[in-house]
Amino acid sequence: MGRELTDTQLIERSIIKKYRKELWGPFITAVTRYELIEEGDRIAVCISGGKDSMLMAKLMQQLQRISKVPFEVVFLSMDPGYSPANRKKIEENAARLGIPLTVFTSDIFDVANSQDHGSPCYLCARMRRGHLYAKAQELNCNKIALGHHLSDVIETVVMAMFWSSKLETIIPKLHSTNFPGMTLIRPMYGIREEDVIAWANYNHLDFIRCACRFTENAATAGHETDSKRKETKMLLAELKKTNPEIETSIFNAVHAVQLDTFPGFKTDGAKHSFLEHFNA
Questions:
Q1: How many other CB atoms are found less than 10 A from the CB of residue 99?
Q2: Quick one: which of 247, 74, 84 has its CA closest to 144?
Q3: What local confidence, expressed as pLDDT, does residue 226 receive?
Q4: What is the pLDDT of residue 233?
Q5: Nearest to 172 by CA among 191, 192, 183, 187
Q6: What is the distance of C-alpha 242 from the center of its chain?
Q7: What does the DSSP assignment read for 183-194?
Q8: Torsion angle, CA of 27/31/33/37, rounded to 10 degrees?
Q9: What are residue 79's DSSP bridge partners?
Q10: Most buried residue, 24, 144, 175, 244, by most Cβ within 10 Å?
């Protein structure tokens, strides 16, 4: 009779077995296709406590165990001012998942929520990124990994086109402009959010959401914070009813941009026109 698996091992097995096609396969494809991990890397896997970053941590942990390319990982979690209950939930989930957290604190929530105008979310996101880069650099990491997934890529395309009058999205990796020698990678680039949710539900995992005071107050008042991203999610869900492959089409499209058919484009901060080549 075989030995009984622990709860952590069962969760790990679900990634490799039950959700191999939806999670493990796209993860390995992204790591390989975009050359996200190299020999000798020391990667700060940034964990907010939400479903995406927690799954990313397990994927990176599993890859490190079996990879023929030696690399190190630090599971880095910042407490920007969570309530005691949310801090406890993050720590309990990490323990259940077998993730050894390196936790540091900051006052980001206090600073962001002290602003007198507009939503603090943009400022909070920028400050979080800076603090994570700085701590990762302090820990001698050369890369940070964030949990953005395929759904984020697609939603960003639609949001930029409909509300910012431009065609853009997020890319799988990029160099930091403020922290020389540091690179940001997104190893979940090919994973759909619905599959992350399915994995979490299958394993009866309950993760925190944003958990900042701004969004917590909105939820307590009986409604969620409105956002263009939420509106975009609803739009894509409606379009999928008649075209189930619309997400795949958009994702493939950002890998096959035909610049020759565009009247204008921008690269490295400089604007260009098709006339540059037309009149050549």
A1: 21
A2: 74
A3: 52
A4: 93
A5: 187
A6: 28
A7: EEE-TTTT--HH
A8: 180
A9: 105
A10: 144
- Asked whether 54 and 44 are in contact (CB, 8 A), the reply is no
C-alpha to C-alpha distance for 155 and 233, rounded to whole angstroms = 7
Backbone angles phi, psi at 217, to 5 degrees: -65, -40
In the numeric block, which tokens belong to residue 257? 């941009």
Q: What is the pLDDT of residue 84?
A: 87
Contacts of 44 (CB under 8 A, 6+ apart): 73, 74, 76, 132, 135, 136, 139, 141, 143, 144, 145
Q: Which residues of the chain have pLDDT under 70?
A: 1-2, 107-126, 210-226, 280
Q: What is the pLDDT of residue 114?
A: 62
**What span, in angstroms and rounded, lies between the C-alpha atoms of 11 and 5?**
10
Residues 222, 78 contacting (CB under 8 angstroms)? no
C-beta of residue 154 within 8 angstroms of C-beta of residue 140: no
Q: Write the CA distances from 72 to 38, 53, 139, 144, 275, integer angstroms.
A: 10, 17, 12, 12, 48
List Cβ neighbours of 13 (8 Å cut-off, separation of 6 or more): 5
Place of tokens 């943009």: 122
pLDDT at 104: 86
Kindly report the pTM of this predicted structure: 0.89
**Burial of 242: CB neighbours in 10 Å, binned 0-12, 13-18, 19+:** exposed
Give all strands (DSSP E) within 22-132, no chain letters. 42-46, 72-79, 101-105
Judged by DSSP in three states, 81 sits in coil
232: tokens are 């975009």
Contact 52, 147 (CB under 8 A): yes
| pLDDT value, residue 171 | 96
